[in-house]
């Protein structure tokens, strides 16, 4: 199923080739269900929620006197994104990136808003690889639009805290809400990197207990996962660093301090990734060393056996010629004597090899 979905996604991205810039084309797995829409308006004293399948009704509830959080679950509906983009003046190239699920994470600054796209990463217990979901955010003066590929409950705790006025969310603006949402996504990266580290530890333990050829494939799978992880982490880390360095009227100084913390999290995760990458290299080298040592032991065993049997073969070859004038052929005890001599020679070769510590 995974390969089928991947091929479908690649096929849809290939179909996008040749489209003019700014064309809205969903590149993910084909979907037909209607997106779910929600707007949350709040300030220090009030909190309102409206859920509707009509984007016009959602936009009609927008009020600049509040912080407005518009959440769109499902980015495959071009009409919804276009209406939202027209209402807030979002560039068509930004909307194109929203619908392009293969786009790498990034943060871009525009005159009246900030655009950010991230990857939500999960690793289900029954899966052998990371599953990524495309998330995008548009942050303006009094609003934030979150657009996620699939409907889920990732931000439920944030909604509950806002509704109960827990924490600082209700006292801050849309920029702080962006921090909360992004932090929620990035927190899942720790879970993924922890699973990778645990798998590498298990491979290392098995490598010492019972080295086998299949372990090389498992090590390469983890390395491939790390390389995929790098594609999602490093661009976001660098763009977030640039956002912090440059002044932006949409980011308050208070929120800037929190974004610094977010950057530190990404730096910590990056260091863990690099350490895990180094471990995969060391494990591959160790695996190759174990395999080479195992092969050497096999060759040494075969060589020892061959060395012992070479003189025995020589003796058997001599007495297997059956020439008429061979004196031992008529000797009554010739056969047992030859067997005894061969046994004595074999034991002598074995003791000699053992003494020289060749095995």
Description:
By secondary structure, the protein is an alpha+beta fold. The protein has two domains: 2-289, Beta Polymerase, domain 2, CATH 3.30.460; 296-355, Methane Monooxygenase Hydroxylase, Chain G, domain 1, CATH 1.20.58. The protein has nine helices and seven strands. It has helices at residues 2-16, 55-60, 78-88, 92-99, 156-163, 174-209, 214-245, 253-318, 334-355, and strands spanning 36-42, 47-52, 67-73, 106-109, 114-122, 131-139, 143-148. The chain has a seven-stranded mixed sheet with strand order 2-1-3-7-6-5-4, sandwiched between helices. Strand 6 and strand 7 form a beta hairpin.
DSSP, total strands: 7
Backbone shape? rod-shaped
CATH superfamily of the largest domain: CorA soluble domain-like
What is the residue-mean pLDDT, rounded to a whole number? 84
Radius of gyration: 34 Å
Q: Give the percentage of residues in beta strands.
A: 5-15%
The CATH architecture of the largest domain can be given as 2-Layer Sandwich
> Residue share in helices?
55-70%
Query: How are the strands ordered across the major sheet?
Result: 2-1-3-7-6-5-4
- Which structural category fits the helices and strands? alpha+beta
Terminal CA distance reads 50 Å
**Poorly predicted runs of 5 or more residues:** 1-11
Run of helices and strands? HEEHEHHEEEEHHHHH
What is the class of the largest domain in the CATH system? Alpha Beta
Largest sheet: 7 strands, mixed
Number of domains as seen in the coordinates: 2
- How many helical elements? 9
Q: What name does the CATH topology of the largest domain carry?
A: Beta Polymerase, domain 2
């Amino acid at each position: 199923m995974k390969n089928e979905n991947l091929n479908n996604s690649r096929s849809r991205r290939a179909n996008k080739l040749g489209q003019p810039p700014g064309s809205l084309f969903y590149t993910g797995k084909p979907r037909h269900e209607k997106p779910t829409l929600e707007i949350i308006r709040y300030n220090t004293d009030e909190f309102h929620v409206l859920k509707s399948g009509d984007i016009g009704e959602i936009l009609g509830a927008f009020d600049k006197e509040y912080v407005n959080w518009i959440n769109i679950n499902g980015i495959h509906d071009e009409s919804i994104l276009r209406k939202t983009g027209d209402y807030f003046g979002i560039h068509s190239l930004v909307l194109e990136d929203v619908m392009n699920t293969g786009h790498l994470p990034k943060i871009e600054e525009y005159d009246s808003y900030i655009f950010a796209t991230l990857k939500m990463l999960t690793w289900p217990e029954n899966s052998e690889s990371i599953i990524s979901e495309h998330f995008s955010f548009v942050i303006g003066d009094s609003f934030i639009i979150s657009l996620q590929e699939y409907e889920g409950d990732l931000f439920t705790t944030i909604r509950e805290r806002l509704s109960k006025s827990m924490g600082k969310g209700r006292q801050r603006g849309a920029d702080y809400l962006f921090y909360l949402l992004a932090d929620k996504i990035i927190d899942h990266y720790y879970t993924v990197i922890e699973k990778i580290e645990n798998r590498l530890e298990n491979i290392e333990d098995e490598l010492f207990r019972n080295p086998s050829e299949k372990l090389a494939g498992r090590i390469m799978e983890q390395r491939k996962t790390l390389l995929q992880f790098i594609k999602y982490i490093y661009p976001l880390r660098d763009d977030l660093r640039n956002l912090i360095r440059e002044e932006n009227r949409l980011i308050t100084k208070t929120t800037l301090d929190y974004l610094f913390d977010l950057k530190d999290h990404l730096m910590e995760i990056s260091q863990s990734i690099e350490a895990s990458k180094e471990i995969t290299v060391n494990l591959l080298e160790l695996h190759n060393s174990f395999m080479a040592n195992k092969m050497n032991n096999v060759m040494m065993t075969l060589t020892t056996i061959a060395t012992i049997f070479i003189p025995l073969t020589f003796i058997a070859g001599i007495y297997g010629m059956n020439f008429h004038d061979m004196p031992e052929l008529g000797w009554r005890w010739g056969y047992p004597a030859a067997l005894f001599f061969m046994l004595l020679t074999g034991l002598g070769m074995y003791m000699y090899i053992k003494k020289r510590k060749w095995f």
